[in-house]
Every structure is written in structure tokens, then in C-alpha cells.
Design brief:
It is a single chain. By secondary structure, the chain is of the alpha/beta class. The chain is built from 9 helices and 13 strands. The strands form 3 sheets. Strands 1-2-3-4-5-6-7-8 form an 8-stranded parallel beta barrel, surrounded by 5 helices. It has a 3-stranded antiparallel sheet with strand order 11-12-13, with no helix packed on it. It has a two-stranded antiparallel ribbon with strand order 9-10. It starts with 9 loop residues before the first helix and ends in a 7-residue tail after the last strand.
């Protein structure tokens, strides 16, 4: 882990960035780019703040165990599922989706790992949360480098988890651009870049084949490693993946820890400037494989630990600075989602701050940042209905009578329908149309039903 240094001021952040790479040049107006000089924005005051959709908030719900550069650290106190759910219930806001990012889902754990995460996904989605998976390459010695076996595993995970309508995303591999930390990042392992590219393509293909439209596929990038490693990483995604890889991407994740990893320390309040630098640098790097700006960024990991020399109040101020910057520039960089890392400390008494990223101490008492994050979710979070837990047995019936179309919702789950919100028609040509019926459910969720109709009725519509 990078040692904790004295706080640095904004000019020094510029010097650090300049030491990492040369001044960025504008990317050519082509699908792919050879330019990896992605310095990122260094002065947020010069960046326009464009409007964007409100953020969909979430958190990594588990206890902190993984560490950068070392093996996992067992938690000081065991997990209490009931207290976990109670704490999560205090964070989320009514009418807002709240996404739980289930991390450390290792390929090497085999069927036992799959069963554990199926149980977690079931527990959380039944409690009213959305779930996304951090699906790690992290192979055993026998598995390492076997990309065919890895993609078969990815397809199996998509098939088994995608049946749940509240499992909404899969992150394929983790932080492949980092090679020095096998416990936390997949870049240490042989053929990790191929695992990323082929895993994303396989996951999206399986989701499309099985009709799992809610399941968004992506990968993440850690802000950041040295310039040569970054250039090699992004060019390999371009050369290995090409158009099939880009076409399979629904989002790209950003892991950023200003004041902890890069830059290793920061003047209080300047953590937000580092987040702007990270978002802008990622947008620049994404031009190399040709990922368009229309593909949203998810802030998958962002946090600030407490511990020796790191007060709980500083955690609050760092949170305000970082989330404030993400929210202010969400439209500029097309950022749709934000996840805090993480819910509970592994060991609040440790001299190692890596065990203390939580909003809760290891005994489940709240740090001041807990209430502040709950307020961010309540005041700035996206509002949208929760999808139903299972696919409803509903369909659209269309009949013509007296020159008018009569559209009804029918099916075995009709009792779960509160009302029809809207009916819209779209012409397809050759006498065909599609009718879309938006339905509000009694549990507060909404679904959209579709049906193609041949022929026409005389009259309106």
C-alpha cells in the first residue's frame, strides 16, 4: 500500500500528474485513438457543468476485508445479517433505487462461491434492493490463463443470476490495469486483459440471448497506474476487443480514492478536484478503444478511510468534496451511478487505515459520514420505481370494435396491477404497429408491456 504522506496542495497535484504523463493533446475525431496522453482536467473551474440525470446511488455492503498489496484481513467482529439490513434501510430513500455492489466474487471459489452469491443476491433483492456483481477473474493456479473456461464461467453466472430482475449489472474482472495487488486487483494474473475483453463479450452475448434486458455489462478502471502501464492497458483493449468489445459495453466503472491511493494525500477539500481529474482522464482513455461518450461511467468505488491521522470528520469533508464534484459534473462526463466503498469497517482499532473505509465502525455504530451519505441519497438520488422481483404473467390484449382499438392488460398476475399509466402506439410499416402499455403495480413498481399488432382498425390510433 502507498504510504500516507503529508497533505498536498493543488499545485502539487498538477506536478504529480505532469510527472505521470505528458500534457494531453486533443483526441482525433475518429472511433479509436492512438493517443494515451490522458492527463485529465487539472482545474475544474474551467470545465463546464452540464445537466444530467440524477445519480443512482449505492454502496458495497460487505465488511472490509480486501487490502491493496496484501492478503485479506479477517474482520474483528463477524457479520450480523440483520444489523447489516437494518443499516442499509437507514441509508436508502423511499422511491429511490439503491444498488448493492457484491464484491470479491472469485472464479477460483467455484460452485461454492456461486451459491454464496446467489444467496446474497436473493437476500438483498427480496429486501427491496438492486444488486450488481463484481465478477472477479482471480483464478486458481490450474485455471490461470484458461480463457475458454473463464468465459464459460461468465456465461454460467449470467444465466443463473440474470433470471432475477433486480440483479441489474455485472462488472467483468476488477482493476485489470493494476498488476501489483493480486488480492484486490486482477491485473496480476496471466492473460487478465484477455479475460476482461472476452468476458465482457461473453457476458453481453449471454444476456442478449436469454432476454435479460435489465442486466448491464461493464468493466472498471483504477485511477491510476504509471503512464507506460496505462498506455499498454488501453491499447490492448483496443487491439484485443475491437468493435465487438465496444458494442458489448453498457457502462465503464471508475475506482478512485483521492487522498489514499492517487494522489496519496490531499489538502482537505481538494479531493473533489481529484475526482474531476479522474473522470476526465477516464473519458480520454476510453477514446483509445473507441468507447463513445454515450456509454455512461459508474463510480464503482470511491471512499475515504478513518484511522490513525484520519479523523471521522475528515471522512465527512472528503465525502462532501468527492460526491459534490461527481454530482456537479455528472452531465459533463456522463456519470450515471455512484457507489461508496464501503458499509462497515473490518477493524476499527487497527493501525492500518485500509480496514476502516466503512460508514459504520466494526461494532455497527455509525460514523458521522453515515448520516451525511444518507442525506446525499435522499436529496440528490434518482427517483424511479423498483422492478418486480419476478417476471409477471401479464400480456396485452388488442381487439377492434366499432372502428376503435380496445387495449387491455390480461394475465394470471392481473391482481398485482394498480392501474394502466399510459398506452402508446408506434407504426412499423406494412400495416404493423407496436403497442406499449405502461402499468403501475400495487407494490409501487412499474412495468412496460409490448405487443406487435398486424392490420388496422378504422378510427383513431
Amino acid at each position: 500500500m502507498v504510504a500516507v504522506l503529508a497533505p498536498v496542495r493543488r499545485p502539487l497535484l498538477l506536478l504529480i500528474a505532469l510527472a505521470l504523463t505528458a500534457v494531453a493533446t486533443p483526441a482525433p475525431a475518429i472511433a479509436q485513438s492512438a493517443d494515451t496522453n490522458c492527463l485529465g482536467q487539472l482545474d475544474p473551474t474551467t470545465v463546464p457543468k452540464k445537466p444530467g440525470r440524477a445519480l443512482r446511488f449505492g454502496i458495497t455492503p460487505g465488511v472490509q476485508t480486501g487490502q491493496l498489496g496484501t492478503g485479506p484481513a479477517p474482520p474483528r467482529t463477524p457479520e450480523d445479517p440483520a444489523r447489516h439490513l437494518a443499516a442499509l434501510g437507514r441509508l436508502r430513500a423511499p422511491g429511490s433505487p439503491f444498488v448493492l455492489r457484491l464484491h470479491r466474487f472469485f472464479w477460483s471459489d467455484g460452485e461454492a462461491g456461486v451459491q454464496r452469491f446467489l444467496a446474497l443476491a436473493d437476500r438483498y433483492t427480496r429486501a427491496g434492493y438492486l444488486v450488481e456483481l463484481q465478477l472477479r477473474y482471480h483464478p486458481s493456479a490450474a485455471q490461470e490463463g484458461d480463457i475458454a473456461a473463464w468465459t464459460a464461467f461468465v456465461r454460467d453466472v449470467v444465466r443463473r443470476f440474470g433470471r432475477n430482475p433486480r440483479v441489474v449489472a455485472v462488472q467483468v474482472t476488477n482493476e485489470v490495469n493494476l498488476s501489483f495487488s493480486p488480492d484486490s486487483s486482477d491485473g496480476h494474473y496471466a492473460r487478465a486483459r484477455e479475460a476482461l475483453v472476452h468476458g465482457v463479450i461473453a457476458a453481453k452475448d449471454e444476456a442478449r440471448r436469454r432476454g435479460f434486458g435489465q442486466l448491464a455489462i461493464g468493466f472498471n478502471w483504477a485511477y491510476r497506474s504509471d503512464p507506460a502501464s496505462e498506455a499498454s492497458f488501453w491499447r490492448s483493449l483496443r487491439d484485443l476487443g475491437g468493435r465487438p468489445f465496444v458494442a458489448a459495453l453498457d457502462w465503464v466503472g471508475l475506482d478512485a480514492y483521492p487522498g489514499t491511493l492517487f494522489p496519496p494525500a490531499d489538502t482537505p477539500g481538494d479531493e473533489g478536484d481529484a475526482m474531476v481529474n479522474a473522470m476526465s482522464a477516464l473519458r480520454c482513455y476510453l477514446r483509445v478503444p473507441g468507447v463513445p461518450a454515450s456509454v455512461p461511467i459508474h463510480i464503482e468505488e470511491n471512499g475515504y478511510p478513518t484511522g490513525p491521522g484520519r479523523t471521522e470528520q475528515h471522512q465527512v469533508s472528503a465525502m462532501e468534496s468527492m460526491i459534490g464534484a461527481v454530482d456537479a459534473f455528472r452531465g459533463t462526463y456522463n456519470v450515471s451511478d455512484y457507489r461508496w466503498f464501503n458499509l462497515r469497517d473490518g477493524d476499527s482499532t487497527s493501525a492500518n487505515f485500509q480496514t476502516q473505509y466503512g460508514l459504520l465502525r466494526d461494532d455497527y455504530t455509525e460514523k458521522p459520514a453515515f448520516a451525511r451519505y444518507a442525506r446525499f441519497v435522499r436529496e440528490r438520488g434518482r427517483r424511479e420505481a423498483l422492478p418486480p422481483l419476478r417476471r409477471l404473467r401479464l400480456r396485452v390484449s388488442v381487439r377492434c370494435r366499432c372502428g376503435h382499438r380496445r387495449v387491455r392488460v390480461v394475465g394470471r398476475d392481473l391482481r398485482k396491477v394498480r392501474r394502466v399509466v399510459r398506452v402508446t402506439w408506434k407504426r412499423l410499416g406494412h400495416g404493423r404497429r407496436v403497442v406499449r402499455v405502461r402499468v403501475r403495480l400495487r407494490d409501487g413498481g412499474q412495468v412496460v408491456l409490448r405487443r406487435r399488432v398486424k392490420g388496422t382498425c378504422r378510427g383513431r390510433g
